[in-house]
Amino acid sequence: MNRWTLGIVVAAMAVMPAVVSMPASAEPGPPPAFPAVPEFDAEFYSPADAVVSAAEPGEIIASRPVNLATLAVIPLNVDAWQLSYRSNNARGEAIPAVATVIKPRGDAVGERPLLSYQIAEDSLGNYCASSYVLQQGSIPWPLTGAVTGGGQFLEIQAALAQGWGVVVPDHQGPNSSFASGPLAGRITLDGIRAAENFRPMQLTGRDTKVGMLGYSGGSIATGHAAELRQTYAPDLNIVGAAEGGVAADVGALVDNANNAVGSGIVASGIIGVSREDPEMASFLDQHLNPLGRALFAAKDNLCVGWNSALAPFLNLKGLFETPGDPLLEPEARRVLARLKMGQAVPDVPMFLYQSNPDWLVPVGPVNALVNTYCADPKASVEYTRDHFSEHLTLDVIGLPRALLWLGDRFDGVPAQQGCTTRDVGSMALDAQTWPVWQRTVGDLVGGLFGKPIGA
């Protein structure tokens, strides 16, 4: 953690009572009023290597109850726990991972489905992770800059209101490796396994119907998890995956953000990838110029809000000392190829939605990804292109349709065979989604006043 970030964390903690961290081995008790920042909670977030290696992927190492809250202040009337579990990095090495599992109030009508929601963390510090940001008493995300975690928590509440169980993985892993899709996909799949292994969630084990959902940075984890399921987690009953603002090609994101408004957040993705991929770390060490080194040091450990605000309209490629375009260097090309979606065709139904004029995540690579998937006659893909929304607004506008689509999968409605592409003016004009908006607003308002969610 750099000095600037540490200053924010320490200053915020200074006005709070002492943090109490329950050891992983202790008997569960009431959650602390002010949860420990992950960087200072190593016993739960970083269990011993021998303990992690001895576990199976998705096996729970420790668990503890937590209190969740909107804006870190307004309590959410649900049951929630944190799970520490074993996962693997992209090289097959054992790593620790953490997820938040949430059970709505009331008994399920029939078998309860499980939604794995991948928040667009897009950050470089563990204090930005979903497991911390969602908790009551955490440092408020407007201060830390973890704005996506705070905002997308409302979308999670909309899913809980359907009566679904939810698992929210810290899919960037112990090193906050933002944009490392192969890592995030594995952590997501093992988080689902961990949730199914956790009896208080009252699921039906590996028979549980599972859906996955993620937008923007969350699409990285969702998309890679969908592609990896067949080989990495064939035991999971994933009935559908929905993703929007699809970051299908990291190299295309760098091209699109160069000298543009999104350069700050994309630069953070380069840092995040270097934490997981040794070849990218070596490439940066060899080719970053002094300005690049200074900027990357300043960004290190910042959350998405501050990382986005730091250095927009930056010449990203000008931070490297290479004969030409740094993305065309052999090492960079190999790394970017490993990060690109389309390595495999998902064997689960897919719902993709994308803003055609997206200023951050270009539509071209998403079109190409859909074409790659749909070259396989067994693929099931519904793809919606929105021609009015942009990157930030489509996150909210596309959610009701994604929830309806996932609800159909949970209800056993067969997904379409083959592929469909729809071009719409705005997904907000879809009349079938309007009741979802109404229910969601009502449930969110009720939740602010303590109404049990999902009862």
Describe the protein in words.
The chain is built from 18 helices and twelve strands. With 455 residues, the chain is α/β, with parallel strands linked by helices. The longest helix is centred in the middle third of the chain and has 17 residues, at 181-197. The two termini are 41 Å apart.
Class computed from helices, strands and strand pairing: alpha/beta
Mean pLDDT: 92
Strand arrangement, major sheet: 1-4-5-7-6-8-9-10-11-12
Tell me the number of strands: 12
Strand-residue proportion: 15-25%
Alpha plus pi helix count: 18
Sheet with the most strands? 10 strands, mixed
Uncertain spans: 3-27
Radius of gyration: 21 Å
How would you describe the oligomerization state of the chains in this entry?
single chain
What is this structure's SSE topology?
Elements: H1 3-14, H2 42-45, H3 49-54, E1 60-65, E2 69-70, E3 74-75, E4 79-88, E5 94-103, E6 114-118, H4 130-133, H5 141-144, H6 147-160, E7 165-169, H7 181-197, E8 210-215, H8 217-232, E9 238-244, H9 250-257, H10 263-276, H11 278-287, H12 290-299, H13 304-309, H14 330-339, E10 350-355, H15 363-374, E11 380-386, H16 391-397, H17 399-410, E12 418-424, H18 434-448
Parallel strand pairs: 6-7, 6-8, 8-9, 9-10, 10-11, 11-12
Antiparallel strand pairs: 1-4, 2-3, 4-5, 5-7
Helix pairs in contact: 7-8, 9-10, 10-11
In short:
The chain is of the alpha/beta class and 455 residues long.
